[in-house]
Design a protein that fits this description.
single chain, 21% strand, binds iron/sulfur cluster, OB fold (Dihydrolipoamide Acetyltransferase, E2P), Rossmann fold, alpha/beta, pyruvate-formate lyase- activating enzyme, 440 residues, binds S-adenosyl-L-homocysteine
Amino acid sequence: MNVSDTEIVNSILMEDGMEPVNEPEDAEVIFVNTCSIRDNAEERVWNRLKEFKALKREKDGDLTVGVLGCMAERIRDKIMEKEELVDLVVGPDAYRDLPKLLADVDDGRKAVNVLLSLEETYADIKPVRRNDNGVSAFVTIMRGCDNMCAFCVVPFTRGRERSRDAESIIDELEQLSNQGYREVTLLGQNVNSYDDGEHSFADLMYKASQVDPEMRIRFSSPHPKDFPEELLQIISEQPNLCNYIHIPAQSGNNAVLERMRRPYTREQYLDLVEKMREIIPGVTLSTDIISGFCDETEEEHKDTLSLMAKVKYDLAYMFSYSERGRTLAERKYEDNVPEEVKKRRLSEIIEQQMNIQEELNNEEIGRRHLVLVEGTSKRSDEQLCGRTDTNKMVVFDRPDHIGKGDYVEVTISDCTSATLMGDFIKKSSIKEFSQEKVAV
Ligand code: SAH
Ligand code: SF4
C-alpha cells in the first residue's frame, strides 16, 4: 500500500514541477513513507530519519525532510517537537496538500496535515510508477478500514473505509495494459469490502478480468468476512483471475479470535477454506498470524498451530503481537505474554510453516505451470524468475528470446520451502494454457 501511495505522491509532486532523483545525497526534499502496523516498522523509520538528520547537517540545512503515511498521523507531536528530525508531516489522506505544505516549509514554517478524509481516493491521480519491473503494477481500489480489530492501528491511522469508483479503476487497468503491464494487484486494507455504491468487489473483479484477457489480476489484502460464493465463482471461471487467495486468520482459537474482535470462529473459517478449495480447485492459500496476543495461553497457541497444520497454507506472514497505542487491546487488555514466550511461539509457528511449505512445494514437482516472467533471478543472469498463477516463485534457465513480460510453460523439477525450480517447455499465453488445461 505504501509503494502504491508513493506512486501517487510522485505524481502530485511531479505535476508541481519537482523531479525525482535516485540518491538521497542528490535530493533537496526527502519523504519517508511510513508504516505503524508494528513497533519494528516504526523503529526502522526512526533510524532512517536519524541518517537523514546527519545528511541535513552535511548539507548545511539545505534539505527538507518529511514523514508521510501512517506514522505521521500517530506521532506528529513527537516528530515535530521533541525530535526535530522533520520539517513536514503529512498523513495518508492529505497528499494533495503537499505542494502547499512544501511552500510553507520554504517560508520557514513547519508544516502538518494529518486530517483523515471520508472521501479521498485519489481516483483522478495517475500514479507515476518509477520503481516497478514494468510487468506487475499495484492499483489502489479502496482505502481505510472500519473493522476495528482489537490489535490493529490501521483504522486510526488510515481512517474510514471508502472505495474508488469502478470506472476510474477500469480506465487505469486499460492504460496499464496498453503500457505493457501483464499483472495488476488490486489493493486495499480490506480489498474485498470494496463497494463504490454501484459495484461490489465481485462485480469489479469480473470487469477487471475483461479488460485484457492476458493481464493477470491479483488482490491484497482481503478480509475473511467478504468472500461470497459469487466472488469465488468468478475467480474460478475467469482464467486471468489468479487462483491464489490470502485469508488472514490471525489465530486458530475461538476465545482469542473473540478477544481480537475478529468476526468469525475457527469453524466458520475452516468452512470458508473448504468452500474455496471446492469452488476453485488447486487454489493456493496464504494467511497472517499473530502470536502472543493478550492473555494467549499455551493451549490457545496450540490451536493456531493446529489450524495451520489443518489448512496447510502455501505461504504465511507471521508476527509476534506488538501493542499499538489507542487500539482496543491497549485500552482493555494487558500485553501480558512475555516477550520470550511470544518469540518462542512465533518460532514454533514459523518452523511448522516452513515444513508445510516444503512438503507442498515437493508435491509440485512434475506439475506444469504457466509462469509470468518478471526478470532475471537474483542469483544468476542466466536464469529467469516469475510466478505461477498460484503465486509461487519459479526459477528456470533462460531460454533464447524469452524475457520480462512473457508467459512461459514450465515443468517443476525441484524446490526449496520458498522457491520452485522449473524446466522451460515453451512460450505460451493465458488463453493457450487454459485451453490445454481443459483438454487434459
Ligand atoms: N486487513 C487485513 C490485514 C491488514 S494488516 C485483515 O484484517 O485481514 C496486516 C497484518 O498485520 C494483519 O493481518 C496482522 O496479522 C498484522 N498485525 C496488525 N496489527 C498487528 C499488531 N499490533 N501486532 C502484530 N501484528 C499485527
Ligand atoms: Fe486492521 Fe485488518 Fe482488522 Fe482492519 S480488518 S482493523 S486493517 S486487521
